[in-house]
Design goal:
dTTP/UTP pyrophosphatase, nucleoside triphosphate diphosphatase activity, Maf-like, 195 residues, cytoplasm, nucleotide metabolism, single chain
Length: 195
């Protein structure tokens, strides 16, 4: 278990990230960054998730003079195209049609920031996800639930119907959920021991 003797802040409104951090016994408060992610352009998926997770951490850090900030950013990439969260149901349907029958990559970048010392660490994880062919009816029914609208790539692997679209994954399962738990845990242990 991680022993942290200062306030820990999760700079995310994601219920999936909240649950994953609780799963490893972390005590924290939630303070989303409010950053406009859509206005952000980068040259590569790696740079995208690393830079955005860092910007989120720095934004929230302004409110906490002595805390550990944890932030993350997840995207889906298909044939070099970054697919983030859908703006509406129509875009969600288009995203799922694109992903149907293909393999895409899920990137999650995360940042750990100590606001007192300004020590910062960022890293990312990549997981390959293969979708089976999805029927149009399945897409329509799934999108009608509203569940895909707050998820990169318009699907969830962990807690809803989107799980049955995934044929197989290669890499970290929790990365697809939205937070690479093992990589983060090991990074956090190192981050705390370096003090």
């Amino acid at each position: 278990m991680l022993k942290i003797n200062k306030t820990v802040v999760l700079a995310s409104a994601s219920p999936r990230r909240y649950n994953l951090l609780k799963q490893i016994g972390l005590s924290f408060i939630v303070h989303p960054s409010g950053l406009d992610e859509d206005s952000f352009q980068t040259s590569s998926p790696e740079e995208h998730v690393l830079t955005l997770s860092k910007k989120k951490a720095l934004e929230v850090a302004k409110n906490y003079p002595n805390a550990i900030i944890i932030s993350a950013d997840t995207i889906v990439v298909l044939d070099g195209e970054i697919i983030s969260k859908p703006k509406d149901q129509e875009e969600a349907k288009l995203m799922l049609k694109k992903l149907s029958g293909k393999t895409h990559r899920v990137y999650t970048g995360f940042t750990i920031l100590d606001t007192k010392t300004n020590k910062i660490y960022s890293d990312f994880e990549v997981t390959d996800v293969k979708f089976r062919e999805i029927d149009e009816d399945e897409i329509d029914e799934y999108v009608a639930t509203g569940s895909p609208l707050d998820k990169a790539g318009a699907y969830g692997i962990q807690d809803d119907y989107g799980a049955v679209f995934v044929e197989r994954i290669n890499g970290c399962f929790y990365n697809v959920v939205g937070f690479p738990l093992t990589k983060f845990y090991l990074a956090m242990k190192r981050f705390l021991s370096d003090d």
